[in-house]
Design brief:
Radius of gyration: 19 Å
CATH topology of the largest domain: Zincin-like
Helix content: 25-40%
Distance between the termini: 19 Å
Shape: globular
Structural class: alpha/beta
CATH superfamily of the largest domain: Metalloproteases ("zincins"), catalytic domain
CATH architecture of the largest domain: 2-Layer Sandwich
Length: about 230
């Protein structure tokens, strides 16, 4: 099996990392598929120039990616070398025998080859509280009114990114770990605002805007790309 392509670190489009393939070619180009993006570049082109190239093409790439995902939902086959998104960064999946559970090793995620899907899902669900809890707590501290936050929990509810109960428990879907970090922050703010307003009234949206002023862009992103994030692996 050929090794996975390197990534442009910290760069994602539509929640997916950007791979880089260098060759003897003379020009830079961008290929978009439903599973991700690849930049084709000359050997000596500086990384900063490649980042600028991707940013210039971002709007086009996101539109094209959305159209592809609408026609071809991403029901990804997890195999060795698969690129797993993690809050705008990426982990390379390594399928290894004799492992009992998945574990992160640097920028790799080592997982048992005999049970890849279940092991990767368990890893995400186990990892989620470490990322979710401080963000939710931050917004709860900023809220300043309403019910106190009683708990931060992980959910697997189909079709729902989060919820907030009358008892003050905020639940977030573990697949938000695969979205860009600002999307996680938006959903966290969205649910925390329900501690003050358990509805979707103008007063509620005013709280969301106060906690996370960029909420409209994040809300639009979820509308465009959320279905792809929810697609199951196999």
């Amino acid at each position: 099996m050929s090794p996975p392509l390197p990534l442009l670190p910290g760069l994602s489009v539509g929640g997916l990392p950007v791979q880089l393939r260098r060759s003897q070619r003379r020009t830079v180009s961008l290929r978009v598929t439903a599973q991700g993006l690849t930049v084709y570049a000359p050997q000596r082109t500086e990384e900063a120039k490649l980042r600028c190239f991707v940013e210039d093409k971002r709007a086009w790439a996101e539109r094209h990616l959305h159209r592809l995902q609408q026609r071809e939902p991403v029901t990804a086959l997890l195999t060795d070398g698969f690129v797993l998104p993690l809050l705008g960064e990426a982990l390379i999946l390594r399928a290894l025998p004799d492992l009992k559970r998945a574990q992160q090793v640097g920028t790799d995620l080592h997982a048992p080859s005999a049970a890849l899907v279940s092991a990767v899902e368990v890893w995400y669900k186990t990892e989620a509280p470490r990322h979710f809890t401080p963000i939710v707590q931050h917004f709860a501290d900023q809220l300043g009114r309403g019910r106190p936050l009683s708990a931060v929990k992980i959910t697997n509810a189909a079709g729902r990114w989060g919820s907030c109960t009358a008892a003050g428990a905020v639940r977030l879907h573990w697949r938000l770990l695969m979205a860009p970090p600002e999307i996680l922050r938006y959903v966290a703010a969205h649910e925390v605002a329900h501690l003050a307003e358990l509805n979707h009234s103008p007063r509620y949206w005013a709280e969301v805007a106060r906690l996370f002023p960029e909420y409209r862009a994040a809300k639009h992103w979820l509308k465009e790309h959320g279905a792809a994030l929810m697609q199951p692996w196999h």
